[in-house]
Amino acid sequence: MDTLLQQLINGLTLGAVYALVALGYTMVYGIIGLINFAHGEVVMIGTMVAFTVIVFLAGSGMPPLVILGIGLLVAVAACMVLGWALERIAYRPLRHAPRLTPLITAIGMSIVLQNVAMIIWGRNYITFPPMIHKEIYELGGASFTNVQVAIVCLAALVMLGLTYLVQRTRIGMAMRATAENQQVALLMGVDINRVIAMAFVIGSALGALAGCMVGSYYEIAHYQMGFMLGLKAFTAAVLGGIGNMAGAMAGGLLLGVIEALGAGYIGDLTGDFLGSHYQDIFAFIVLIIVLMFRPSGLFGERTGDRA
Amino acid sequence: MSAHQVLLEAHEVAKHFGGVKALHDVSLTIRRGEIYGLIGPNGAGKTTFFNCLTGLYRNESGHFVFDGVKLAADAPHKAAEIGIARTFQNIRLFGNMTAIENVMVGRHLRTRAGVFGAISRNAATRAEEAAIARRAEELLHYVGIQERAHDYARHLSYGDQRRLEIARALATEPKLLALDEPAAGMNGTETEALRLLVEGICRDGVTVLLIEHDVKLVMGLCGRVAVLDYGEKICEDVPAVVQKDPRVIEAYLGGSVA
User: Fold this and answer.
1) What pTM was estimated for this model as a whole?
2) Which of B105, B114, B171 sits opposite A185 (nearest CB)?
3) Domain locations in chain B?
4) 3-class DSSP state for residue B41?
5) Which runs of E-coded beta strand occur in A157-287?
């Protein structure tokens, strides 16, 4: 019983991170139909920038929370610029190219960013300095930390804000209109170049936040960390119905929980033949099942017309 | 005719699709405050003319002068900005947005709040967004579908979708409203209601360019009418004269004049 509760708590934490990253995939896909495979690397860069800032400020005598906050803000700002630049340099010139071209470019950008990160931060695992003093709470035989609480609450807050932005504001309406019909949005005076750039910038900001969360939670970072994280968040977006924001949030949380439960019970299920380090297979089992039986995802209504 | 009276001038606009001359040096002049009809058989080039005017197509030669300014080709959001709004023959609403949201998108052009305003929720942004919503409500009321404001556009009846498209176009504060077959698929009652709406729009100071198949509607509504056939303007005059023009009768009936 306590394994169940424990893994649910862990899954929720992980799922909150997946959801934030998945939103970046889904917003871009919803508007221009591109799967931005470099998004995982944007998250990684976010973690690395936050790490650098935090290490730089660690000796300054500022309170740890302030340092963490500055690290987060710098990472978010850096990733917003990076997301904007990616769109401007790599994707905008290919706006009218065949669909495969920008997809290959995205994979190319992913490799470029990984290698740049390797040059800057090296090929070894980096220990993320723990800035928050960990408090451990007990609940019904399971334990969780204040870091987990902060991750889940912050993610929920940001997702609420984003939902408000997209559903209620002038800019959000322009984004939804562009997603539905670029040509008509253009005739209504919507500057679709700005809207597309915005999708990248907002998605990258969420990615940077997720990167900082991963860094604080696992306390390590590595130049290749964005690859697996990106793939899983992409899986979460597909699970929820790619292009659908509520789907990305739900898909992220669900995938986190599935993965955590899988990791918790895989030993029992296979008679200890497989251990919890096989947890990665669950995300991809989910991906395969979704693609086989419900390719439009949980919240997706339409398939085909965007594919 | 003084320059001040002229709202739109098309100068020898031509558009080809491969070997097909969709528009062949079409020139016409629309005066401020009139309802100008553009008719012609299927495939005569009416919608192509609209698409060139609104920048969806780039015309090969010729140009438009709107309100004294020469239009740059191929820039749909510029067309909206200088005051040309349009509806579509095949309705193109944002189906997954509500009726009022569709109209609010139309306000985009005349408002400015950006992403920082959206995040900071400052007083100016909130006031602007309230004004957008208010204006959108007025426009829905104006076209007579205010009670459907919060329904998804795709759930509206056909006639209401046409009205919503007009409301959305009006939200951009156009000087020229270009309607592409607004009565297509409407029954007699709906067409009559549409006629009253278009007359009202014109009375309120918006010049109307109307493409229509319903010849009765065009003849009753328009001050002047141009007829296109195979991409060429074959006639332009008041409805009573156009109706009797032998070239027009031939174009529509496809035979020689009796």
Assistant:
1) 0.87
2) B105
3) 1-83+174-258, 95-172
4) coil
5) 220-221
